[in-house]
Design goal:
The chain is of the alpha/beta class. The protein contains 3 helices and 3 strands; from the N terminus they run E-H-E-H-E-H. It has one domain.
Length: 96
């Protein structure tokens, strides 16, 4: 699928895939407004939770608005949080 720069793309993922971060960062670098929701963050498995938090931190450090959602039922709350994270990112300006 070809997505033009300037488009907004939402990715909903578990955040535990090892090869997830590089492709998502590549999308963001191409001028696509990427927003990421890591769903299932309420998982009690410590290793899964650690990987999800690691993906969250890495993507946010790359300037990709990313939030954790405990479950699919809580996606509306996560979308609200994602909008707040995006507003904060825009207010802070691009990273140098």
């Amino acid at each position: 699928m070809l997505v033009r720069p300037g488009a907004t793309v939402f990715a909903i993922t578990s955040g535990v895939e090892a090869a997830l971060v590089a492709p998502l960062r590549a999308v963001a670098v191409r001028g696509i407004g990427l927003r990421v929701l890591i769903c299932g963050a309420g998982n009690t498995d410590a290793d899964i939770r650690r990987r999800q938090v690691g993906v969250l931190a890495t993507l946010r450090a790359a300037g990709v608005p990313t939030v954790l959602a405990p479950s699919l039922a809580e996606l509306p709350q996560a979308f609200s949080e994602l909008a707040a994270v995006r507003r904060l990112h825009v207010a802070e300006g691009p990273s140098s």
